């Protein structure tokens, strides 16, 4: 679907925009995300079916999945902090999107689900890789992923998927903007260096993280 391409282009562009210090990701509709675009999947299925060679079918699907993965990961690659503000339902790919964000806020009526197993798919654009690190409870992650059950807002707050809940969308956006303004008031070099260090350290040993932050600290000193 076009939205995946646009997400990647948007965050790659904001990464280079010096006027941008913080990004708030929210939805304009009644819910945050509705999940997989089934019409797009039907179109993809037709394209794959037209190929007689199994290798060509595999190549088409692999290229598409990796494109989607890179698009979602653009939130994480972006050096600016990304705050996701979730209201209503956050289904399927929406979970991959918010787990790539740095901070997650939600309304009290928000709910979350990894819906892929209900339609015979494996979540393949980031949620299964990032959710265990965010929640820190592999048993709970497995339960959520295997059953596609709903995670209500209170449980999402309790398990660490989101860090703050708000009564409604209006107060949610106000809270996200307030946080964004606070972060934007700090040194952008220091904030972006901190994000890079946090992301790097999450995926590397402590010693590697310490070595990496030396370079970040040197840049911070000379650029501020």
UniProtKB/TrEMBL annotation:
Which SUPFAM superfamilies does this entry report, sorted A to Z? ClpP/crotonase
**MF terms in GO:** delta(3,5)-delta(2,4)-dienoyl-CoA isomerase activity
Which pathway, per its entry?
Lipid metabolism; fatty acid beta-oxidation
Pfam families annotated for this entry?
A: ECH_1
Q: Gene Ontology terms, cellular component aspect?
A: mitochondrion
Which GO biological process categories is it annotated with? fatty acid beta-oxidation
Enumerate the UniProt keywords alphabetically. Answer: Fatty acid metabolism, Isomerase, Lipid metabolism
Q: Which PROSITE patterns match?
A: ENOYL_COA_HYDRATASE (PS00166)
Tell me which CDD domains the record gives: crotonase-like
For this chain, the family text in UniProt reads: Belongs to the enoyl-CoA hydratase/isomerase family.
Name the PANTHER family for this protein: DELTA(3,5)-DELTA(2,4)-DIENOYL-COA ISOMERASE, MITOCHONDRIAL, ENOYL-COA HYDRATASE
- Name of the protein in its database record: Delta(3,5)-Delta(2,4)-dienoyl-CoA isomerase, mitochondrial-like
Species the sequence originates in? Diaphorina citri
